[in-house]
Structures are given as C-alpha cells and as structure tokens.
Amino acid sequence: MIDLHLHLDGSLTPEIVTKLAKLQGITLPSCDYEELREFLCVSKDCESLNDYLKCFDLPLSLLQEKEAITLCVKLLFEHLYSLGYQYCEIRFAPQLHKKHGLSQKEVVEAALSGREEFKKQHSKSNFDAKFILCMMRGSDNQKENFETIEMAREFLGKGVVALDLAGAEGLFPTKNYEVEFKTAREYEIPFTIHAGEADGAESVRIAIEFGAKRIGHGIRAMENEEVMKLLKEKAIPLELCPTSNLQTKAVSSWKEYPLKKFLDYGIMVTINSDNLMVSDTNVAKELKLVQNEFSLSVEEMNILKENSKNSVF
Ligand SMILES: [Zn+2]
Questions:
Q1: Residue 216: pLDDT over 80
Q2: How far is the CA of 124 from the centre of ligand 1 (A)?
Q3: In the sheet where 214-217 sits, what is the strand order?
Q4: Number of domains in the chain
Q5: How far apart are the C-alpha atoms of 190 and 149, rounded to whole Å?
Q6: What is the pLDDT of residues 262-280, one digit of tens each?
Q7: DSSP class of residue 177?
Q8: Measured in angstroms, how far is the CA atom of residue 174 from the centroid of ligand 1?
C-alpha cells in the first residue's frame, strides 16, 4: 500500500494528539478519544475546502515545538506501518510550525529526526516514508515560500523528495506562483501542486506548464478535454483523494466523480488518502471504496496500484 498524498497535520489520531498534548502540558478540549475525533474529523456539513481546512487548527497547535514534531512523525510512521503501508510521501508546510519561534530548518530537522527514530527502532521493517515540503498559498508569505524552497534544496535526497503548494486554491490561484516554481525548476527540485481541487481545469493546465511532475487532486481537469489530453500525453499522475474530494465538494457526488473517465481516457490516476484523520480514511479504505463505487475490474485495480508505484518521487 502506497500513499503519495498525505498531510502530516491532517493525519493525527486521537492517541497521537493525546501524547503530544501530554508531552507539552497542553490541555485538550477532551480526554475522550471519541470526543476528540469530533475536533479532528471533518463534519458532515462541510461545505468547501475552506471549511475542511479548519480541522487542522488543533493538530497544528500541538506541532510548534521540536520534540513534539519529532514524536509526532515517529508515531505517525508507526501508525502507517501498523496499517500495512509500505511507502508514503508525507507532506507538511514548515512555515506553519513557527508559532513558538522555530525556524523552518528546525522544523524540517525535527521531522527528519522522527523518521530516524522510527528507523532505528524498526530496523527490520520494510516500511519507509519521505517528506514533501509544502509552500502555502497566501497573500503575504512569499518570503516564507522561498525559504521552503531553500529547505527542499538543502534536504533533497536526505528524507525530502519534493515540493508542493497547498492552501486555499480558490482564493489564491496557481498562476500567482510562477517565480516560486521557476526557482524550484532551476534547483531541479521535483514538485507536485495542489490544483484543480477548489479551482478549475485552468489551474491544472498552469501547474503542468510550471513543470509539475504530479498534480495534487487535479479532479477538475474533467472540465476541460484539452487539459485531460495534456495529462495523458505527458503522463502526469493525478493524486486523487476520493473521500476528501467529496468532502470539500470538489466533486458533488460519486456519480460525478471522474475516476472511470480518467482511467478510460488513459490518465495516470493514483488513489490516496489526503488526511488519515480529517477524512477518517487510508489508502486501503479508499481503494475499496472506488472498487465498489465503480465496479472496477481486477485489472483496473492493478493499474491503480501500479500507477502509485510508478509515481513515487
Ligand atoms: Zn492535500
């Protein structure tokens, strides 16, 4: 089982959250795991990506210290391993972990330490995960984004594999980030871009133009045949996250969900979780869901799994 699109801060179980709070002497809104889930999982009345992003407030507040980030990464690795994962690309935005004064470098180093600790304690396990560093969409954080690019450059091949751009796509369009991705290309840092989730097919087209090696979601490429053609011809994988895409209303229903359309068209689709906790899912669950919803054949299921293997950074 491989997950190419999984956010660190959206994947903290109530158990992990409780351990992080205890480590730091922080009082949580509840000690009860079931009640905590209500703060960590998206509610049924989620209306948009902006609503969805609110579920990250509590986990992020617990990830502002080095020790907490290291412990969190180690515990998440253990959780993924216990779920039967073989490989995962975990993403996070270093600039969101600076509220207590950490530098982006300290944040990345703390995450890498958590990975090392897991590896030391599970030297015989065949599970591994690497990191994708996210830049954030926003109005006044270009300096922070450039620092993230520098971090990716410094730690590329040392546990970091790529860059990404995350955040409110509907408010801050992909086209605004041309210089950031020009720099990433010059540094030869591979990148994926969240595109075609809250914004339309044009956002995907621009991401391809910028040189994205993969597209985060890319679901709304279905609105434009030209963009679908580009994805196919360039064999750019889409990191689909079905449950999340339905929750954020990127797609209104399973009936509208373009998985079969993309598969039949010859686009390289992969199935991912987005957020283990916020969406209360994992890749095994997502694969089962799409298999049932679309009555996929064994061959089609194998294509999805092979695509993930062939799309790792
Ligand atoms: Zn995402």
A1: yes
A2: 30
A3: 192-195, 214-217, 238-240, 269-271
A4: 1
A5: 11
A6: 999 999 999 999 999 999 9
A7: G
A8: 14
| Separation CA 176–CA 172 (nearest Å) | 7
Residue 154: CATH number of its domain: 3.20.20.140
Those residues whose C-beta lies under 8 Å from the C-beta of residue 199, and which sit 6 or more positions away, are: 169, 170, 173, 174, 220
Helices (H), 47-200: 49-53, 57-61, 66-82, 104-121, 142-155, 178-186
pLDDT grade, residue 53 (50/70/90)? confident
Q: Indicate which residues carry an active-site annotation.
A: 197
- The 3-state DSSP class for residue 32 equals coil
What is the percentage of the chain residues whose pLDDT exceeds 70? Answer: 100
The answer on pLDDT for 51 being more than 90 is: no
Ligand 1 ion: Cβ-proximal residues, 5 Å cutoff? 274
Assigned token pair, 173: 């369009």
Q: Which domain holds residue 196?
A: 5-310
Q: How far, in Å, is the centroid of ligand 1 from the Cα of 158?
A: 23
Ligand 1 centroid–CA 245 distance in Å is 10
Q: Give me the percent of the chain exceeding a pLDDT of 90.
A: 91
